[in-house]
Amino acid sequence: MPVYSKTDPCRVMAVSVVYDKRNNRRFTSRDEGRMKFVLCFCSSVLHNTLSYQRERYLKSQTMSLLNVVEVLFTHMDNMDLLLQKIMEQAQELANAERCSLFLVDYDAQELVAKIFDSAVSDIDQPSAEIRFPLTQGIAGYVASTGDVLNIRDAYSHPLFYRDVDLSTGFRTRNILCFPIKNEDGQIIGVAELCNKIDGDYFTHEDENLAMQFSAYCAISIHQSMLYKDVTESQQRSRLANELMLYHMQVEDTEVKSLSKNPIMKPYEIGATFHQCSFLPRSIIEDETPAACMTMFQDMNLVKKWKIPVDVLSRFVLLVQKGYRNPLYHNWMHAFSVVHFCYTLYKTCSNFGFLQELEILSLMVSTLCHDLDHRGTNNSFQISAKSAIAALYSSEGSVMERHHFAQTLCILNAEGCNIFQNISHSQYGELLDLIRDNILATDLSHHLRIVSHLESMAEGRMPWAFLFGLNIPVSFCSWL
């Protein structure tokens, strides 16, 4: 017999079944009347019980979401930690075995996961990003459509990629994948929950809870990105002010003094200036800018790239002033490195593998590769939590990235852009080459390529392979 709701008499909320009347008798109409009378009271009790359970569930859900808000909004200063906490909270809310979180990179049209798996990730250990096309797989479908996917049997779904299970040994049974949208409705991420612990699959209530949870995720991620941008801007401003306070500006009289006279020929500096046997430190420091002008002129860089002499003069002088005076990584070290690169160009036939743009990038890279060096290594900067480390530690090669940033600052300074007559496409390629060259001076990179250097020295690897590994500037810098 049906049990009707007290609030809606037309809605059946339960069904009562009575069977096997005693003494093998049949149920009568009188029995039906008695059942209806009893069920009227049962309906009220059942309705109140269900309402109470629903209120308890909603209260528990609200408290869980409040806890989520508290956890997420206390970790906005660290994006990696925030993403880790989002996965942990999603996993706990839905009572799932695992959770993965992907951010949308619209520029590259890819999904990105710095922390792929909540069950195995260690926030203290750096890990490579996982990237895949924006439309690939279950997460890609959700990122593209904005729909929630509740998959009861993962292996029967056409979008499921089972090779991940095969490689990890994990068995995916069911999946709940939902989008994370910002206030404008744009999808900024996708969360993927795997294997409901206390059920055979994720329920409709899990879907509703996930979408409520995603709203808080979107707010916290957006605020974390804003916080990062503001922090980086503050650090850049601090570094720029620090650089300006430490270094003097180049006076016009210095530029005129260097550029008004004809650029010297190599033999005017020394008969063996173009040879590796020449000692660059035999030149007094005040005369090294003029020697740099000589090298650029002798390599035909000034004429080839239409570099104005006064602009090159100001650039070289400002680079010189951009170096501090630690015991090793100072201006004379930079001058020695650029001179060695010059002598390789003059004496080494293997430099014929390089294109003209690459040669220009090498000379500028070697000249600028230790700009504003503080006399300490990357590990020290990170341990000291310096402004440089705060700005670049997440990308690695802390000091090298700072050297490149200072190179760009000098190039962008008034009257210092020696690339001003280079085409737009070549300009971008040139900056990329300079960046890669300066990053290659990181000692960790140098140690990785020692075996390649040995192979080339022994003839087991062609010299043409050298330039694909950014070895020239690394080799010059560490000699």
Descriptive account of the structure:
- With 479 residues, this protein is α+β, with helices and mostly antiparallel strands.
- It is 53% helix and 9% strand.
- The protein has helices spanning 29-72, 79-94, 137-145, 163-168, 204-246, 252-259, 266-269, 288-298, 301-304, 309-321, 331-347, 356-368, 378-383, 387-392, 398-412, 424-439, 443-448, 450-457, 471-478; strands at residues 2-4, 12-15, 96-105, 110-113, 130-133, 149-151, 175-181, 187-196.
- A hairpin with a 4-residue loop joins strand 3 (96-105) and strand 4.
- Helix 12 (356-368) crosses helix 16.
- The longest helix has 44 residues, at 29-72.
- The relative contact order is 0.06.
Structural class: alpha+beta
Gap between N and C termini: 93 Å
Radius of gyration: 34 Å
SS summary, helix count: 19
Strand order of the largest sheet: 5-4-3-8-7-6
Instruction: Count all strands and give the number.
Output: 8
Percentage of residues in strands: 5-15%
Largest sheet: 6 strands, antiparallel
Mean pLDDT: 83
Question: What spatial form do the alpha-carbon principal axes imply?
Answer: elongated
Low-confidence stretches: none
How much helix is in the residues?
40-55%
Q: Write the element-wise H/E pattern from the N-terminal end onward.
A: EEHHEEEHEHEEHHHHHHHHHHHHHHH
What is the quaternary state of this protein?
single chain
